[in-house]
Write a structure and sequence with these properties.
alpha/beta, about 260 residues, two-stranded antiparallel sheet, elongated, 8 strands, 10 helices
Length: about 260
């Protein structure tokens, strides 16, 4: 690929599962449950770890279901209320403030790291002439924590714009997320590629909004339909350069 191969194009990238991932996902869940139980106990509401885990897991499943199906961005205090509900624990301002910190910082306990090839792919894209955008669903982890994580991993510098669902108030696959990408980039949706590992939120969400999509599948799953698939991030820049050259001025309809 030659430099400046993608001028006039916007490339949006998902974060979790595409650019970074936890090195220890179990540590995230275990720490959050243990800290919730400790906080509840400190405020006079002793509950077993199993009870807390069941309440946390049920809330996580429902929040994720709502986000993936309807693009609903969870509200942190609503999530905490859903966890306390089945445990019969009333709300107090002091306890809530502590629980917010636990919930929003739990993801850091997994020691997130860039996936193989992520930095190299971002470096190549940054030299391609494309506008790079990070587009991430944040769930309970705050935008501030995400931003600090990106800064610590040295990834922030690659992006001209960063869109967190927690700040937008909606989440992928909601078409409004992808509309925000195009509006802020001042480009039509057919000039936007979104790259992500989730078929529903990343691929289908982008296509339904009129954007183009690349499905990142490190497990080697076969492509579905006409959506291009990469199994390694090192394949991304050449795929996009070829696809954009084929698309010409971008007037053609997205796949």
């Amino acid at each position: 690929m030659t430099a400046e191969a993608l001028p006039g194009w916007t490339v949006s990238l998902d974060l979790w599962g595409t650019l970074i991932d936890h090195t220890d996902k179990g540590a995230v869940a275990d720490w959050r449950v243990a800290e919730f139980a400790r906080v509840f106990d400190a405020f006079g509401h002793r509950r077993t770890l199993d009870e807390v885990r069941a309440a946390v897991s049920a809330t996580d499943r429902e929040v994720l279901r709502q986000q993936r199906r309807h693009g609903v961005q969870p509200v942190l205090d609503d999530m905490l209320a859903a966890i306390r509900g089945p445990l019969g624990i009333p709300d107090t301002p002091q306890m809530a403030s502590v629980l917010r910190v636990v919930h929003t910082h739990a993801a850091l306990r997994g020691c997130p790291q860039p996936l193989e090839g992520a930095v190299e792919a971002l470096t190549a894209l940054s030299m391609s002439g494309a506008r790079l955008v990070l587009t991430s669903n944040t769930l309970a982890t705050s935008a501030e924590v995400h931003q600090q994580l990106l800064d610590d991993l040295g990834l922030s510098v690659y992006f001209a714009d960063i869109l967190f669902s927690g700040e937008l108030g909606i989440a992928k696959p909601h078409p409004g997320v992808f509309a925000a990408i195009t509006a802020r980039a001042q480009c039509p949706p057919e000039r936007v590629w979104h790259v992500g590992d989730d078929r529903l939120t990343d691929v289908n969400g982008a296509l339904m909004a009129g954007c183009r999509a690349v499905h990142y599948r490190p497990d080697g799953e076969a492509a579905q339909g006409d959506v291009p698939v990469i199994t390694h991030l090192g394949q991304l820049i050449d795929l996009l350069a070829t696809a954009c050259q084929t698309a010409g001025d971008g007037i053609v309809e997205p796949s």
